């Protein structure tokens, strides 16, 4: 049988996505296939929220501009030398790789946590889109400190948006991908336009004026914590911790011809997590000079961070459209991914219905503005929970021979629950979460120590408890 026919049969057996097989040579993609995807995925709804939230944390110009430059570089390096390297070496999805190491029962728990967290993230993006859709209806915008829905108009708009996004996501990856490809160029152009208009509204004539927008920083707004240079660096590095050091993007880079495809993540980091965050912060800086915002501040309250009105103030209807689309381009693939995670738990339920279930959970989450308004903290928690599982994959891949342990132990020993993985994660998570809460340590600061400890504990526990196979 020829090589082409073998690969064709493998693809058919794997449902066309090679979920439980190595990706064959004929299906590998060049770096250009990843460039557009990362540029589009990371210039989306989250950016409209995160940029302004940096201002509420009182960052200085140096902290923001230089901190983001370094933090995003560290994220790119993590993708290139960890995620892309391991993905190309093994060519398995995250879920199949974890199943080989952890066993099916433990992966089921991971999938449940992953799916729920994806739903909450998608819910915050439904909230973002709702702030734009609500403008023509003169809807009261959620405040930075709001946790509950603030009116029936808000509830109705969120439900309608959630239903539309869920239906698009339920049509499958091709529909989700096409929707993102159509929307992404509009969103990137809108971010650029918003930044230019906002600088004009702020009277920026040169670099000094631009720098002075943040200056030496300020006190954080009520209910927010103060961000320093290291807060910005570490948070921006680990904003996508679940994707790079958490190894979620193994599923993406397994199609890459070589690990250099990992460098394409720079398009997402420096278009989305640099240019777009700063552009969105500029929109909020304009709003802070308004009488409405000053009234909030004089009363000791934080002015609302509602992307819809901010973008509308800068570029009108294009801004409203961009915010709606930006929320969709993040929520659509996120709900789709959540559906896949749930389907791994309940495989007899169709992709359509698990995606609808995920969309329903996300829509309910979107009703509560807290997920969006506390996005900096939620993203930090999301990465902190999931990233240590990636450490298990990384440490096994690079150190299993030196540690003298069996690679893919759950598969070879035919066990469904690898206790070494569970206890490595539980101890590292529990210890550093306790430190964060007890001593009020910024959660992103303990993500890397927890990741390293989990990896080391996994090797030590595996060495101690693995049986010869």
From TrEMBL:
Keywords: Membrane, Transmembrane, Transmembrane helix
Name this polypeptide is given: Purine-cytosine permease
Gene3D superfamilies attached to this UniProt entry: Hydantoin permease
InterPro entries from the UniProt entry: CodB
Transmembrane segment boundaries: 64-88, 109-132, 152-170, 182-202, 227-246, 267-288, 308-328, 349-369, 375-395, 415-435, 441-461
Gene Ontology MF, one: cytosine transmembrane transporter activity
GO cellular component, one term: plasma membrane
């Amino acid at each position: 049988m020829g090589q082409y026919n073998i690969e064709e049969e493998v693809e058919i057996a794997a449902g066309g996505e090679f979920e439980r097989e190595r990706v064959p040579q004929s299906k590998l993609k060049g770096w250009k296939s990843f460039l557009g995807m990362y540029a589009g995925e990371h210039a989306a709804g989250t950016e409209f929220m995160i940029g302004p939230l940096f201002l509420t944390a009182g960052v200085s110009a140096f902290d923001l501009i230089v901190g983001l430059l370094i933090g995003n570089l560290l994220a790119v390096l993590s993708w290139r030398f960890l995620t892309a390297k391991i993905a190309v070496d093994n060519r398995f999805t995250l879920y199949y790789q974890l199943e080989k190491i952890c066993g099916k029962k433990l992966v089921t728990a991971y999938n449940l946590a992953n799916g729920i967290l994806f739903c909450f993230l998608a819910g915050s993006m439904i909230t973002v889109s709702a702030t734009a859709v609500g403008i023509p209806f003169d809807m009261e915008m959620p405040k930075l400190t709001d946790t509950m829905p603030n009116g029936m108009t808000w509830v109705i708009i969120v439900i309608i948006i959630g239903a539309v996004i869920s239906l698009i996501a339920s049509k499958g990856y091709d529909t989700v991908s096409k929707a993102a490809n159509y929307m992404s160029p509009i969103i990137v152009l809108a971010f650029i336009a918003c930044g230019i208009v906002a600088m004009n509204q702020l009277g920026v004539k040169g670099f000094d004026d631009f720098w002075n927008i943040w200056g030496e920083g300020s006190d954080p707004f009520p209910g927010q914590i103060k961000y320093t240079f290291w807060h910005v660096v570490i948070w921006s590095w680990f904003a996508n911790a679940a994707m790079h050091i958490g190894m979620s993007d193994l599923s993406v880079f397994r199609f890459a011809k070589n690990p250099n495809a990992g460098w394409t993540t720079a398009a997402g980091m420096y278009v989305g997590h640099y240019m777009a965050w700063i552009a969105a912060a500029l929109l909020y800086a304009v709003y802070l000079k308004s009488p409405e915002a000053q009234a909030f501040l004089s009363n000791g309250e934080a002015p609302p961070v509602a992307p819809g009105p901010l973008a509308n103030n800068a570029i009108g209807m294009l801004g409203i459209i961009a915010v709606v689309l930006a929320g969709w381009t993040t929520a659509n693939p996120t709900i789709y991914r959540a559906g896949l995670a749930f389907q791994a738990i309940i495989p007899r339920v169709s992709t359509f219905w698990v995606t609808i279930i995920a969309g329903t959970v996300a829509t309910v989450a979107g009703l509560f503005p807290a997920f969006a308004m506390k996005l900096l903290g939620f993203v930090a928690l999301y990465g902190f929970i999931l990233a240590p599982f990636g450490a298990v994959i990384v440490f096994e891949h690079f150190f299993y021979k030196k540690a003298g342990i069996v690679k893919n132990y759950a598969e070879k020993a035919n066990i469904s629950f690898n206790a070494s993985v569970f206890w490595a994660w539980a101890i590292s998570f529990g210890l550093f979460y306790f430190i964060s809460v007890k001593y009020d340590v910024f959660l992103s600061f303990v993500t890397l120590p927890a990741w390293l400890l989990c990896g080391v504990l996994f090797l030590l526990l595996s060495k101690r408890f693995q049986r010869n196979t």
